[in-house]
Design brief:
about 160 residues; mainly beta; five-stranded antiparallel beta sheet; three-stranded antiparallel beta sheet; 1 helix; 8 strands; about 50% strand; disordered N terminus
Length: about 160
Amino acid sequence: MNRILVAACLGTVIIALAPSVQAQSSPDFIFSSYQCDPVSCVNELPPTVEGQVTASFNGQCTGGAIGGIEGFAKSQVGITPTGESAPCSKPYIPHVSFEVHRSQELNDFCEVYSLDTVTENADVLDAFRNLVFHREISSSCDGGVSPVERIGTQPC
């Protein structure tokens, strides 16, 4: 009899507490704002034997994991790492860009949240716009960073 009363009492306490537990939605980790320079988030030169292009990114994140993300992309041809002129034997197109993607993810409690990721691209294309060299890295508003990915060989 005592066991029945204890079980009934415990059941009443659990039922009484249940309404006070409210489901909390998972925070989104998205950009509240961002800007690129140039504004289009893309920069490139026409085919050239020597030159470089740059672009920058600055974004403010929501969700509290990180405050924001800053990035700087540079692509160059015909210039040594020390900045000296070394023109290529044929023309190439230096190209940089930033791309923002939003995805839907699940947290540890299977709740859906939105996640923004920015990808920085630095490319060298040949005069016919075929990819010769590609470098990219991605950062997300939840603090995640992908390893640098390289494809091809940087010419001259």
